[in-house]
Amino acid sequence: MFPSFDDLISDAVVLALPMRVRFRGITTREALLVRGPAGWGEFAPFVEYDDDEASQWLLAGIEAAWLGPPPALRHAVPVNATVPAIDASAVPQLLERFPGARTAKVKVAEKGQSLAQDVARVNEVRRHIPNVRVDANGGWSVDEAITALRAITEDGELEYAEQPCASVEELVSVRAAGTGVRIAADESIRRAEDPLRVVRAGGADVAVVKVPPLGGMRAVVALSAQLADYGVPVVVSSALDTAVGMSAGLAAAAALPTLPFACGLGTGGLFVRDVAVTGAAVDGALSVGAVEPDPVLLETLAAPADRRDWWLERARRCHRILGSRDLPNFV
Ligand SMILES: [Mg+2]
C-alpha cells in the first residue's frame, strides 16, 4: 500500500552530512530518510530540483521502505573509485579511500581548469588503477570533446567517456567522430523525458542509470531490460546517496542479469561520516544488503530545525504529486 503522508514521515529524519571534498558544488549533503515496513528509504533530490523531478526521488525512497528490493542475482557489486576535479598531486591520497578498486571515474571539464590538468589527473590515476573512465558532466563542446578524448587517450585507454557534451545531438556527433572511446550517457538519461531517446539517436554505447531520478529499483531493472534490447549495457550509479540510498542502488545492480562494468556506487567515502557503518569494498566490490542507520549517527548528523522543516515541506508537496499519479508497483 502506498503510505499516507503521516505514515511516510512518522519516523523521518533529516540529515546534513559533511563532505570531505567539494563535489557537485556542495560541501554538505542533506537527505531525508524514511522508515517503512520493508526498511529505510532515502529522499535526497538536489536542492535546485523542482517538485516534479523531486517526486521521482520520493517514489524511490517509498519503494525502498515500503516494498523493499527486487530479487537479487548476485551478492556483491563491483564499484568504481570517484576522483573529483582535484589537482593531480592530491590523487594518491584520495585513492587511499578506495582500497582494492580496479576502476576509477575521473571528473574532467571542470570550469576554470585546463585540458592539461585533466590529462595530468587521469594519468596520475592510471598509475594506481587499471580501468579509467572520465565524466565531463556535459562540459565540453563537440570539438572540445574530440580534442580532449584524443589527448586523454594518448597515454592510455579509457573505458568510456561519460556525458562529454550536454545535448543528445552533440553526443551523437562525438560518437560519430571515431575517437575510439565509448560514449556513456548520464544526464541525457537521468533528466530526460524519454530516457531511450539518446540511445535511439545513436548517442550512447553505455547508459548510466540512477535509482532516485528513475523512481526506484524496479524502474532501473525495467529500463535496463529495454536498453539491453539496443545492446546498451548499464552502469548503476549513485546520486551522492547516503548508505541508505546506496543500498537501493546496490540492490538494483544486484537484480540485473548482466553487469559488465563497475558501478558508480562507491561514493560513500566522500562523506566525513555516513549514516551507517557499512562494510568497505572487498576487491573493489560492495556487498548487497539492507542498511540499518546507526541511531547515534542519526542524532549526530541531524540537520538544523529550519532545514528539517524545509525537507518535510518538500516531501509533503512531492507526496501530493505522487498521489495524483498512477503507481503500478503500489496497486
Ligand atoms: Mg555523470
UniProtKB/TrEMBL annotation:
The molecular function terms in GO held by this entry are: magnesium ion binding; O-succinylbenzoate synthase activity
Instruction: Pinpoint the Mandelate racemase/muconate lactonizing enzyme C-terminal domain residues.
Output: 88-181
Q: Which gene encodes it?
A: menC
Protein name per UniProt: o-succinylbenzoate synthase
Q: Which CDD domains match?
A: OSBS (cd03320)
Q: Which InterPro entries match?
A: Enolase-like_C_sf, Enolase_C-like, Mandelate_racemase_C, OSB_synthase_MenC1
The protein's superkingdom reads Bacteria
Q: Which GO terms describe its biological process?
A: menaquinone biosynthetic process
Q: Which organism is it from?
A: Rhodococcus erythropolis (strain PR4 / NBRC 100887)
Residues that bind Mg(2+): D135, E162, D186
Active site at K107, K210
Q: In which pathway does it act?
A: Quinol/quinone metabolism; 1,4-dihydroxy-2-naphthoate biosynthesis; 1,4-dihydroxy-2-naphthoate from chorismate: step 4/7; Quinol/quinone metabolism; menaquinone biosynthesis
What this protein is reported to do is described as:
Converts 2-succinyl-6-hydroxy-2,4-cyclohexadiene-1-carboxylate (SHCHC) to 2-succinylbenzoate (OSB).
What are the record keywords, sorted?
Lyase, Magnesium, Menaquinone biosynthesis, Metal-binding
What broad class of enzyme is this? lyase
